[in-house]
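Can't attach files on this board, so I'm pasting raw text. These are the components:
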Amino acid sequence: MSKAKVATVWLDGCSGCHMSFLDIDELLLDLADKIELVYSPLVDNKVFPDMADVTIVEGAVSSEEDLHKIKHVRAHTRVLIALGDCAVTGNVPSMRNVFPLDKIYNRAYTENATENVGTPTSLVPPLLSKVRPVHQVVTVDVYVPGCPPPASLIGRVILDVLAGNIPDVRAKFG
Amino acid sequence: MAKTFKIDGMDVSAADDQTILQVARERGIFIPTLCFLEGLSFVGACRLCIVEIEGNPTPVAACATYPQEGMEVYTNTERLQGYRRLILEMLFAEGNHVCAVCVVNGHCELQWLAEKLGMTYNTLDYLNRPKQVDASHYRFAVDHNRCVLCTRCVRVCDEIEGAHIWDVMGRGIDCKVITELNQPWGESVNCTSCGKCINVCPTGALFKKSKAVAEMEKDTHFLRYFSTIRAGGD
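---
Top answer:
Structure tokens for the assembled complex are below.
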């Protein structure tokens, strides 16, 4: 049996969902037989593959880079899983949405800066005016809320998706 | 005089003063509620407890409707499930509910309802409207970002504590709960600082200061004693 090509991407999140993914313990050994991790912050591949069977997304869409990345990922993924509250609701990153962008930049790069004062014009990806959950930008197939989602739920969802199902998830935000 | 009617095909009977919701609860039939709280008057504000009645084109709030003889009530039709989910989505979209950093994370009725009714994401756009926090009271604070306008605080302060410092101001999207005709809570001379509003609030909108994320648990057991006292005669 050929292994399923699985990718994970990390947008605007704290990496807690990736930690929770690693927290599935011995299930990782089962998964290792079933999947090939083709792209992830956890491996060294720099280029997203032509087509991944499953991609797990952590984090909200906050910057031009996030937007570009998730659109590319969607176009090259069969089943997209939004993992955790940031990907599903915007969560903590979206708390900036009540403020105008210029105030946020000013706060971060001028008010609180002691060196290189001023908003950078290169190297740092520009922020979008509003932080968005993933499904407001691209189509999402499976939603897994939680901050982070419990490891047991993550394990069950991944196995379900690998078996060709779209699982009916019941889980709380937060 | 007792009335007999049907809930989800089950024959039930109700005393004169019993609403559809009370009869359903007595029979162990689950109807979701948010603004309703046993021991306080009902207002039918949140509409989560809507039920369908055979022959009636629009759903009615179970907490605010008395049954009629021979009525056939349905509590969990596909239509109701859709409406309830939409109500929850509107509540989440209108406020700024970030469970991960909320004082009542894990003890919140809104969060619990979303899980119970299977809302795993929001189909609506979040409004992200800036809302105020009033922390002027020496023990308590109100965070309007988390308020669902259930008016439990208004009712408990008026009906149980008898202070009536809470009210509702504004209309539509600008609607908010206020203390003392929209003065800072800490300047209220009528607030007795009893904490009943804090405990009946279903979300983290009203909370005790010094509580960190997930530390605030609500306790509404005091309402049972008041109900008993009131049942003994006003």
